């Protein structure tokens, strides 16, 4: 199944299709779509790892409250993927280094 087929198709009008780069991998995204939505459609579930125990975390609330979707986006750590619109050529990294700690638990 391709990345496009994992998105809802019926009744949805999408903007321009483009690519973003996640950990060096090309991912399809659409104008008006968040990075979190593009990653979910591509089957990517782990967006970061906890500092203390290195447990995987992914998109949880999708509205910017839980902070679980923090990633390094265009070189900026602790950026919420659920609140950040995808842009052509955007560079995204799974957040896993302790140097990006925010002081939040987990």
The largest sheet is: 5 strands, mixed
Question: Strands across the major sheet, in which order?
Answer: 2-1-7-5-6
Ends distance: 33 Å
Q: Tell me, what is the CATH class? A: Alpha Beta
* CATH architectural type: Roll
How does this model look, in words?
With about 110 residues, the chain is mostly beta strands. It is globular, with a radius of gyration of 14 Å. Strands 2-1-7-5-6 form a five-stranded mixed sheet, with helices on one face. Helices cover about 5% and strands about 25% of the residues. It has one helix at about 35-40; strands at about 15-20, 25-30, 50, 55, 70-75, 75-80, 90-95. Strand 5 (about 70-75) and strand 6 form a beta hairpin. It has one domain (about 15-95): 2Fe-2S iron-sulphur cluster binding domain, sarcosine oxidase, alpha subunit, N-terminal domain (Ubiquitin-like (UB roll)).
In short:
The protein is mostly beta strands and 106 residues long.
Key traits:
106 residues; mainly beta; Ubiquitin-like (UB roll); five-stranded mixed sheet; 1 helix; 26% strand; globular
């Amino acid at each position: 199944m391709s990345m496009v087929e994992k998105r809802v198709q019926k009744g949805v009008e999408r903007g321009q299709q483009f690519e973003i780069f996640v950990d060096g991998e090309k991912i399809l995204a659409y104008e008006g779509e968040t990075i979190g939505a593009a990653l979910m459609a591509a089957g990517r579930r782990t967006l970061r790892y906890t500092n203390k125990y290195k447990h995987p975390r992914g998109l949880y609330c999708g509205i910017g409250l839980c902070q679980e979707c923090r990633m390094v986006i265009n070189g900026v750590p602790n950026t919420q993927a659920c609140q950040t619109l995808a842009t052509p050529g955007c560079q995204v990294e799974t957040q896993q280094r302790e140097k990006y700690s925010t002081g939040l638990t987990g």
